[in-house]
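Weekly modeling sync, notes
Attendees: S.R. (lead), two postdocs, one rotation student

Agenda item 3: backlog of single-chain predictions. S.R. asked that every request posted to the team notebook include the full sequence so nobody has to chase files. The rotation student volunteered to paste the first one in as an example of the format we agreed on. Action items at the bottom.

Example entry:
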Amino acid sequence: MIVAGVDVGSLMTKAVILGYGQGYGGFYSDLMKPTGIDISEVSKRVITEALEKVHFSFNHVDRIASTGCGGIRNPSCTRRMTEIICNAVGVHKMYPKATLAVDVGGQNSKVIRMDSEGKVLQFAANDEYSAGMGKILEDVAQTLEVDLDDLGAIASCSKKKIAISNSYTNSIRTEIEYLLAHKYDQEDIAAAFHESIVSRVLGLINSVNPEPKAIAVMIGGVARNIAIVKSLKTMVEFEILIPDNPQIVTAFGAALIAEESDVLSGQM
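Predicted structure, as returned to the notebook:
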């Protein structure tokens, strides 16, 4: 059997393919692409191209589970699940001892507290002010004219703490241009926005009352930012783990749900 999980994010769409059983052995493939406008089309495209990596086609897929922005609108899927459940399933499969999933993406951020079996006990999602943490970093990188992948390293070189607006009522570009005009270094500007994001993530974590000895797994695109991760680790007492590819964990969870059609039914 071949199953697929697809996670449509505001910025990127991710697909994970799992193959198992007679005639397939066992294989894994994943792929990411910018989401764009046509959610149905990009969902099918990422699945198709992920399948091509392991020499199969879309017609070979037996089950598809979808989640994210397109979880409701994707006509190709055979099951639709919330990101909360997909996060919990994916994280628990990768890290069976984890009891906390911290998902910080382009627009949505959420923290999920789980029991030892991966069942969701409590979760918190971003409010209107903490939305778009990944998008904020993207805007900062564009305005500073640096690569997004380098932004964390740049922020880590900061030597001076500066204050910024936490409401983002003004555009990020306007605020950064003001700071640059007043001779603030780009390292300090980048660090200020990173600090603001870490503060909001920490608020979400505390709202689910994590155990002092919790094991947390950080997923989503922002988990690739070294400055965010380093700062967050200094502000909590428990361990924070980062998967090799933190952006595909939700899609991985969706694929596992497609594999076991009755997995976690009735939890949410």
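Discussion: group reviewed the output briefly. The longest helix spans residues 186-207.
Action items: rotation student to repeat for the remaining queue; S.R. to check formatting next week.
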